[in-house]
Design a protein that fits this description.
Strand content: 25-35%
Number of strands: 12
Distance between the termini: 44 Å
Shape: globular
Number of helices: 4
Radius of gyration: 20 Å
Strand order of the largest sheet: 3-2-6-9-10-5-4
Length: about 210
């Protein structure tokens, strides 16, 4: 089958992209509202795109009414946000945060999560998250139906037991983030395996052969 994306309606493009590009990591994004309370919302249009500078990217669409979501409005106003990574233990609370409460509702509180002050930005992260990235907006790229948020990571919080003894790499037995596939389908990283590339010499013959 062939699909001409230049002629396809948005919902069909969305369905095809999210069905085949995955799994997509989930960012539980926390921000500070104008009234000073915590806002939390899950985003699966998310990934890391650079380490130098350390840049993560969110894709945030407006509500069906065209109005900006609270997360986007808070990011525009403050220029700051937190990416809380989600594992199995946090999955139910993540879904609660995505229910679309009114703007004045503190989603961290209603989901039973512990709001902890950030170190470098005016926001809170969920203490239950295995790791959280404090971010400042590097730039915003606006499209009619989505805004790309490029955020520079300025600080990171990590549960100590997620790392190996040297504190360099994640322990795959302890850090098992979940990711979204399509619709209500998710995947866990509890089944991991090592895959090493073969040597180039296996494919290159010495001169003269």
């Amino acid at each position: 089958m062939e699909f001409d994306f230049t002629a396809l309606e948005p919902q069909s493009r969305y369905r095809l992209l999210t069905n085949f590009i995955g799994p997509r990591p989930i960012a539980l994004v926390t921000t500070r509202s104008a009234a000073g309370h915590n806002n939390a919302a899950p985003m699966s249009f998310f990934n890391v795109f650079s380490h130098d500078p350390p840049i993560v990217v969110l894709g945030i669409q407006p509500r069906v009414t065209g109005e900006e979501k609270d997360t986007m409005a808070n990011i525009r106003r403050t220029g700051e946000f937190v990416i809380n990574m989600v594992d199995i233990a946090l999955s139910e609370q993540m879904l609660v945060c995505g229910l679309g409460f009114d703007s004045e509702v503190d989603e961290l509180s209603i989901a039973g999560l512990t709001a902890t002050p950030c170190s470098k930005i005016d926001a809170s992260f969920a203490a239950e998250s295995p790791c959280a990235f404090e971010c400042r907006v590097e730039r915003l790229i606006d499209y009619p139906r989505r805004t790309l948020v490029l955020g520079e990571v300025v600080h990171m919080h990590v549960h100590k037991d997620c790392l190996d003894a040297e504190g360099r790499y994640v322990d795959p037995d302890r850090y098992q983030p979940i990711a979204r596939l399509h619709a209500d389908n998710y995947i866990s990283s509890d089944r991991q395996f090592v895959l090493k590339a073969p040597a180039m010499t296996d494919f290159i013959k010495p001169d003269g052969e």
